[in-house]
């Protein structure tokens, strides 16, 4: 049959693209359905790439990492318009989307543009402006991503009240901003706009941010956010509010503690849901979990054996880096390619706040809960010559968690400039069960930020020998 395929992938985000290309590489007939006119899904269009590009733009325009370091200040934010702010984001997303399209074409993946929905467990219909096409598949992979959760009490209008999608399309800078939610998205956007000199509030329903982080890293980031002028309102929430017809009037945001915020814009950043609306998964008998996610096993296989799901649509951890590999593992399982059977359970988290935060392995709190006899070692950016050259403004530091009896490194936690880059040496150290002395014996280019690892190991050994132990609380100059 003309429209019959070995695999049909729904969604062209990081998970869907990599799965489709891998299956095609192994000479399977593959089709991909994308409902948007552009490729890349949230990873390229509304999430990973655009927000990270905006962060780099904010750093450049604000001169955050240059103030007072080179005897002159470069601060362009006051002269920059919204077009300047959005320029690089638009360019990067456009180029990345085009590369996805080229990659699919290179591997002879047939592309259908339109809304996919299940007819039955092996049949999909694709509805577009040109009509309806029927597609048959031996295997199906759902990689439709997620969308921002919209609670009914929030008056989203995409002009002044935003979710993490619409905030990328603002046509002016807000005079002030309230962010609801101190998760990854909320913290990233709060620090981004604060770097641009915008008065920013973060409202969070608990007394901590980013609860999966090591507590000293999270506390360090909170301190840095406050130093940047961000007001963090812990153990709080917002009540119902309206958008005034007069856009010159501020939004009046009532808080649960009785206070009232008057701000120009509002960003809801407190959750996402699986993007399965319109798919009619019930026609294929697919089991659905909480927040419209699809339930899968360790091979990303649904309860319907020939149907798989990967990426944000299956929920945690909802990271582009993991989603790509989930797609590849799913293809390996469905076609028995025997090249990538499982994903490593040790992977890094990268949070693109200002400053960046990244981690891999066990936190100190996890080591305590698991009853591990552990030690810690610290090194601060300012204590390395590379950090001195950079003129570290963030009081950044690296923290190691290691087992005391073997000196094996169990976790690496970093807050500071380029943390999401330099974490990868820590990833290898944790995966390979490297010891403190093995890291000390490693030769790095000099001067580089990788010296953080070496001197954190020295500090850890010193603490075991009863020397003075550095603490993250010493990060103040």
TrEMBL record:
Binds 1 FAD per subunit. Residues 5-327 form the FAD/NAD(P)-binding domain. GO terms for biological process: 2-oxoglutarate metabolic process. Gene3D superfamilies: 3.30.390.30, FAD/NAD(P)-binding domain. The keyword Secreted does not apply. FAD binds at residues 52, 144-146, 312. This is Soluble pyridine nucleotide transhydrogenase.
